[in-house]
Amino acid sequence: MTGTEQTEQTEGSERAGGTARRWRAGEHILWRYRDHGGPGRPPGDPGFAICRPVTVVRDTPELLAVWLAPGTECVRPALADGSPLHEQPLATRYTAPRTAVRDQWHGAGVLKLARPGEPWSVWLFWDEDWEFRSWYVNLEQPHTRWSAGIDSQDHFLDISVFPDRSWLWRDEDEFAEARRAGLIGAAEATRIRQAGRAAVTAIRAWDAPFRDGWEHWRPDPAWPVPALPVDWRRTPARTRL
Ligand code: MG
């Protein structure tokens, strides 16, 4: 077996759930999103656009729940000159060169819920006084689990869900622009819309996790805020070398 094959096998086994160990409540892991390629990515850069250090709340074969604490140092994308993405007009937002910047998570914390294999995760938003505001269904690739966290890729389209069970689509304009800019192909766009319809079916049925009372959950006040590791970009294969 060559070194390359070994690396691919190692990575493959991690991707297939080779790191089967369940994380304990209170452990720190990384919740990362890959970018969609495009200009400005140096050769060899694994292309992670977002990295959020989080605390594990629950990890079972059915559900991964994590807490993104206020003030956590995260990695987020910015324009190459450091300015925020939303300052760039939509027409060029996905083609202007980008960089990754370290920044604190502003505002209240977020509880993130993901079911293995599902093409979305559900985030719970409260205000600073713990008044529950909404769920946010973030359409994304089903998670890849590795030894120090989970990786995914954002699919632009999102859904907000409110306590009165009303809901609405979010970011349809960004989805359309990403499609136009070629970041999403026709077949993928169809899959993403199908995932969105499946999520809406779950919302209308008031399926998990909406019915599960997570809005009453609170973090353990003794939990420290997770640190952003220096090697936050590391790939699963490299962690075994
Ligand atoms: Mg999204």
In DSSP terms (H or I, runs of 4 or more residues), the helix count works out at 5
The unreliable regions are 1-18
Give the CATH class of the domain at 23-29 and 50-74 and 104-216: Mainly Beta
How are helices and strands ordered from N to C? Answer: HEEEEHEEEEEEEHHH
Distance between the termini: 16 Å
Cofactors, ions, other ligands: magnesium ion
- Overall strand count: 11
Shape: globular
CATH topology of the domain at 23-29 and 50-74 and 104-216: FomD barrel-like fold
Which range best describes the helical content: under 10%, 10-25%, 25-40%, 40-55%, 55-70% or over 70%?
10-25%
CATH superfamily of the domain at 23-29 and 50-74 and 104-216, please?
A: FomD-like
Order of strands, widest sheet = 1-2-3-6-7-8-10
Structural class: alpha+beta
Task: Give the amount of beta strand, in percent.
Answer: 25-35%
Mean pLDDT: 88
Q: What gyration radius follows from the Cα positions, in whole Å?
A: 18 Å
Tell me which CATH architecture of the domain at 23-29 and 50-74 and 104-216 applies here: Beta Barrel
